[in-house]
Amino acid sequence: MQDKVTIITGASSGIGKALAEEAHKRGAKVILSARRKEMLDELASSWNAEDYLNVQADVTREEDCFKLIEAAVEKFGRIDVLINNAGISMRALFADVDLDVIRRLMDTNFWGTVYCTKYALPYLLKTKGSLVGVSSVAGYKGLPGRTGYSASKFAMHGLLEVIRIENIKKGLHVLIACPGFTSSNIRNIALSKDGSSQGETPLDENKLMPAEAVASHICNAIEKRKNSLVLTAMGKTTVLLNKFFPKFMDGMVYNHMAKEPDSPFK
Ligand code: NDP
After folding, report:
1. pLDDT band, residue 163 (cuts 50/70/90)
2. What is the CA(10)–ligand 1 centre distance, in A?
3. For residue range 81-125, what is the model confidence (pLDDT) as tens digits?
4. Residue nearest atom 39 in ligand 1 by C-alpha distance
5. By CB atoms within 10 Å of each CB, which of 112, 136, 174, 236 scores lowest?
């Protein structure tokens, strides 16, 4: 990733923050983006000003995404890598959830990816660069209590796969990266059925894959121009078994998720 101009959305926390640090360590010129710009400024406080740009952007707003891409091109003259990482989660049964929760999931995870990709694509085609979506194992297997989340990630898969195929003769690289459970803030702020933050994580975050390890795997996959990446033993097993035994995996996933503390189903 040496000298590659790399945009990372959702760089203020978790996997995005770790990606920012990893890409910077590998010599990339990084454009960091999130709503909380103060977190980005803190992250890059010791970096050389020529190596990065921090841009405040809410990916649910098309205009913010347009301005993010234009700011990157204005400073660095090109784009080599776009990492669509910004994302939120939820936990509520579909029968109980306010529809606005599903809309917020789709606006952030899916539409945020659509907007950034739409405006970055002409530049990525010029450099035969890399378009990356940080999806999830939930983009391969529906997770109970996460309708909006799984739907947004399945939608990302469809979007990115088609963009890959449409540009197969133009040298564009498209990576769909699917972390398994990763230690981050995502479950603390996941939306409950009424749209409020869950405020706690049902998992022991210390036992999950560290965000830094996920970032390293994603940067390796970008450098090797891989099409897909699935992480954690549980994630890989889920994706593999689901291919051959989807009905069996419905039951397995139900039983596993029902064991979470305060699960909305038993
Ligand atoms: P975090 O909650 O730690 O970080 C989420 C990031 O997304 C923050 O930087 C946040 O920044 C940003 N973000 C959220 N909403 C918006 C928005 N509307 N506009 C711009 N930025 C936004 O979560 P993770 O690091 O865990 O999640 C990163 C990605 O990884 C997500 O796409 C998630 O689905 C995926 N993932 C995570 C897994 C996990 O177990 N942690 C597993 C599989 C996939 P700010 O609030 O400052 O805007």
Report:
1. very high
2. 6
3. 999 999 999 999 999 999 999 999 999 999 999 999 999 999 999
4. 182
5. 236
Backbone angles phi, psi at 12, to 5 degrees: -90, -5
Active site residue 149: yes
User: Which protein residue has the closest C-alpha to ligand 1 atom 12?
Assistant: 10
| Rounded Cα distance, 231 and 182, in Å | 9
Q: What is the Cα–Cα distance from 82 to 68, expressed in whole angstroms?
A: 11
**What are the structural domains, with CATH classification, of the chain?**
5-233 (3.40.50.720)
Ligand 1 is surrounded, with C-beta below 6 A, by 9-16, 34-36, 39, 58-60, 85-88, 108-109, 134, 136, 179, 181-182, 184-186, 189, 211
